[in-house]
């Protein structure tokens, strides 16, 4: 039997050495009914959010500890400026990915970047027998109806992904990952570039403490068709 600690080594949301992230998510999913009402789904997500905020679920988690991302203060203004060149450049840098993840947490939309990271890890699976359990966990955590950290996907993308779950391939989540990537690139990324913490980094100051904001309405790909994002840093 394969070591479950290898399933999601890069999500950085592990509970402890004997409680990896995928086990936490599978346990939370199992305890919740799948035929919940909309209000029930919201309560489920709230309970999961509170669960993941407990200290024991963040040992060694550089994304989970309050204030740890202020380490981004060591990022030079020149490096931070490169993050504004492209969304891909931001995600390719560890410090940039950390800073963006912290920003999404202030908007209560961190499930998007967590899903993207999970997909990146999934595609690096070394053997075919790893794909099925990983795919099932990703699907139950982020994609199926009323999933605890459900991402916003259009009907077609969700249907195509669902159909491939019987025999998942490394490309199973490519369409869904691309959709979430575009939504972050065109919605959250421009706001990140205008945020106080990012502007502080550009000026060589410690990141300003970000205020939590209400989650904005959910967007779909159609919202951004023929729209060119404004990436101007004010």
TrEMBL record:
- Note the Pfam families from the entry: RGS (PF00615)
> Could you tell me which residue ranges the RGS domain spans?
86-202
- What Gene3D superfamilies does its record include? 1.10.196.10, Regulator of G-protein Signalling 4, domain 2 (1.10.167.10)
Identify the keywords attached in UniProt to this record, alphabetized.
Signal transduction inhibitor
Q: Organism's domain of life?
A: Eukaryota
Q: Does the keyword Metal-binding apply?
A: no
Q: Which SUPFAM superfamilies match?
A: Regulator of G-protein signaling, RGS
Set out the biological process GO terms recorded for this chain's protein: negative regulation of signal transduction
The family database entries (PANTHER family) matched by this protein are listed as: REGULATOR OF G PROTEIN SIGNALING (PTHR10845), REGULATOR OF G-PROTEIN SIGNALING 18 (PTHR10845:SF155)
Q: What protein does this entry describe?
A: RGS18 protein
Tell me what organism the protein belongs to: Dicaeum eximium
Q: What is the lineage of its organism?
A: Eukaryota, Metazoa, Chordata, Craniata, Vertebrata
